[in-house]
## 1
Amino acid sequence: MLQVSIYRYNPETDSEPSMQDFQVDTGGKDLMVLDVLELIKTQDTTVGYRRSCREGVCGSDGLNMNGKNGLACITPLSEAVKDNKLVIRPLPGLPVIRDLVVDMSMFYAQYEKVQPYLQNDTPAPAIERLQSPEDREKLDGLYECILCACCSTACPSFWWNPDRFIGPSGLLQAYRFLADSRDTATDERLAKLDDPFSVFRCHGIQNCVNVCPKGLNPTRAIGHIRNMLLSRAT
Amino acid sequence: MVRSVTSFGRSGLSDWLVQRVSGVILLAYFLYIGAALIGGVDYLAWREMFASTGMRVFTLLALLSLAAHAWIGMWAVSTDYMTERLMGPKGNVLRIAFQIACSLVIFVYVIWGIQILWG
């Protein structure tokens, strides 16, 4: 029997959060953590968590499993469990709405700040804006982000300044549009990033790289943004 | 865009660059001093080393680098931990008091250092 400890908090009835223990029969299989949560849901229907696609595409079930952020649906027990124990907590640093469900407003507000859409002031062509295969390649490792918030909520700089530091996820997206050959707002985008908080709260500790379930590298993208700022301002 | 009036250069990029360059200068200075110490110096040799203008200028450069480096670092620490988000309104008072205290201490060290070098 797997020992699972789950963070419980219902702000309407509880004065403070607590941990609830469950025993789960995994049948000796290497289940995903999400499967374990579903089994727990059959024991106690009040456990709250987000999930949708159950295959690492939607980014709904970002959780903290035995201290490490990740997507419950694609994290096998063999990777997460230590000494037959599994502690599941909500993503750190964001306000808890209930149990494992966090309020992502601050995360989305930072995403919104980087204007994550193509901006082009030249007349639109008849069919579509073309891009060479080489230019398209520059977006690899950037466009795959699913906004699960595992990276930003693993970042101490984001914990202390979620209202001012854009965070690894938002900055990866910022670079995705800075690197896009079809975007013409590069200067305006960069001008908004040259303050002491938005980009430069990144101290390069790479927690984001360590936890990204899609294997992306926000620290490298932040380095590219810094270089773009540097080459324009010196 | 987040405005700040107490950061070293008022710009994240400038602070970042100053932090990196001053770090390299400090590394070079302490390697130089470390090599001299490992090589073994007595009072006279040490005195003679600091009597040369080149060494005094290098030391002043390191001292100013240390001042800038320390200010940028302490400013980042204060704006991480001493904030209204984490401590309520008293965080703002504490942060400003801490920043003033840091700048005074750094100022004293710079003046004191200059006095030692050319006194």
## 2
Amino acid sequence: MSINRIIGLFLRHFFLIKSSLPRILDLIYWPTIQIILWGFISKFFTAYSDYYNNTVGVILTCAILYDFLFRSSISFNMLFLEEIWSRNFTNLFIAPMRISEIITALVVTALIRTLIGLVPAILITSPLFGISILDLGIPLFFLFLSLYIFGITLGLFVSSGLLRYGPAFENIAWSSLFLLAPLGCIYYPIEILPDFFQNVARGLPLVYIFEEARSILVNQVVNYSNIKNAFMLNAIYLFVGVSLFYYSFSQARKKGSLINIGE
Amino acid sequence: MQKSVIVENLSKNYFKKEAVKEISFTINENEILGLLGPNGCGKTTTIAMMLGLLKPSNGRVVIHGLDIEKNRISLLHKMNFISPYIELPKKLSVKENLIVYGKLYGVKFISERIKYLSEKLRLEGFINKKTGELSSGQKNRVSLAKALINEPSILFLDEPTASLDPETGDFVRSFIEKISKEKKMSILLASHNMDEVKRLCKNVLMMNNGVIIDKGTPDELIKKHGKRNLEEVFLKLNRNNHEHK
């Protein structure tokens, strides 16, 4: 694996972002609005709900965590879409880049894009709502890591589709996370779901991640088995995601989609 | 004469359609080979297979003695491509684009290389401008700079002077002519500009419906078909082909 080539692909997106104030503002704007909105909803529920009584910030913390997942996945997809929109796809694939280098470069760049958007949003939660996500303590790192891996994995699934089917797959890129959100049990316990959906939801790492966040904030109990389950499921999905990406690249080479994807 | 590229019985089928049918040819070191044919005849498909972008259904492409299918990454270091149908990111400046591609191709002294190409291709005046803000002539020279950033030994040029004014077109042609001699490059030139092909190419392949229907030097082809120029040969061969279909 060549660090130089990974830096090269990272620079392609870094140059794009740093020279465009609207792009930077766009990255920051949506997470900030999302956090402010959920901050007020959170305040309301804290005052009027028994479940959330005296647990200031449960909803807001879950909103921040979900937004982190959402931004990670969208950032990964955006990097691929940028190449399609700029008709640069062919140039990229005739450069001597290994698939592993492309994935690594996108993983790093997506993280930086996500943090540019989310860090300012997290910083305003304390002065505006008196809440700090850092209250989750050390497990917060594992929750973020787990969400990031799942976000990247979803990005890999969608990018595989883009690679194979081209821009026609773009709408799926935007809607993929909305499909999973209800099953992820972000703002409510899994028991709320009907039995069938509970079984489906248990196959997603999201359920364990958000269950753990609530467990820490509501009951002040750290349950590492939730974190372990989330990582185990993430490992499986990531393996499938990477394999699918390689398979899609091979199929794209057979079907010719690498030639005309940006045209 | 050293053969840089050997194409053997290369075919590509999309479902039941045969886009390229068992074509074979070679490109020697320091040779510009012309690839002529009407739109949709299989030129781009052939180039894509030679670049490893497309997997052949049959046959193989051997570059510097190595099969592209088995050595794609290492061979891509020595190749590059320019086409009016692909672009560089418009929001990046010319210099940023060249830095990115310098990194992707593992160029050691990127600044020096960019400086050299800027001088040769007259990019200095707009090197810090956004690529999307350039005229088509300037964009074309930037694409050429990107295609030469890794000092390729094999270059694929797909209509390199399409939509250029005569002055810029002539500058690009002269540059290609000069650099291919200096660097002993092997170049495959797909073009619809017959004067350009006659001027630059030692040998020409005439392609239609996925097969090579004739080949030779431009003068040989003109003489063989009893025509005044390459354009008339092109028209004759294609009309014959339509009649036989």
